[in-house]
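Quick entry between incubations.
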Amino acid sequence: LAKTTQPISMDSYEGQEVNITCSHNNIATNDYITWYQQFPSQGPRFIIQGYKTKVTNEVASLFIPADRKSSTLSLPRVSLSDTAVYYCLVDSGGGNKLTFGTGTQLKVEL
Amino acid sequence: SAVISQKPSRDICQRGTSLTIQCQVDSQVTMMFWYRQQPGQSLTLIATANQGSEATYESGFVIDKFPISRPNLTFSTLTVSNMSPEDSSIYLCSVEVPGGPDTQYFGPGTRLTVL
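Done. Structure below.
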């Protein structure tokens, strides 16, 4: 399973764009990149998933360069409610187990 | 997507006792997973539970300590046996839903405190 590295914490202010980068140098050909969000006292929640280039949904965008050795989760115009831990994972799906890294604690302030 | 519920949501238990955690899904799923999240830490996979077969445990977790049942495609239980304070954690179940992206959906977790 590919190991991921991401910043332990980030601080931002309401209305700003936040970019969280994750390194996954050993990503395999079949691996997808998935980001989860976890609020205190809740289970992780799926945010976005991609394989290459750019993926956008109503919550976030995911940028993946051609070599796929890293990815960047972009949260536009964050609010206080975006304060959470964000996990980057790589896996090939199909029932493979997920390996959670340390995650990034995002703190959004007024 | 999938809606997952867990019971109990939290419990305080005495050392040496056992607690069974239930996980219910609103749709049929093949694979269910049990995780542990210790205070301030990330998630660690305990085991994978497929219906009709024995659960597969990760390194460091054994069936005698964490027996799992998977009687049908919508339900699973995890028992934490002979508890000690080191077992105080949040226990989460998750499922992989077929037909969509290869993602897992998590339950709300069970917060266990062992005195």
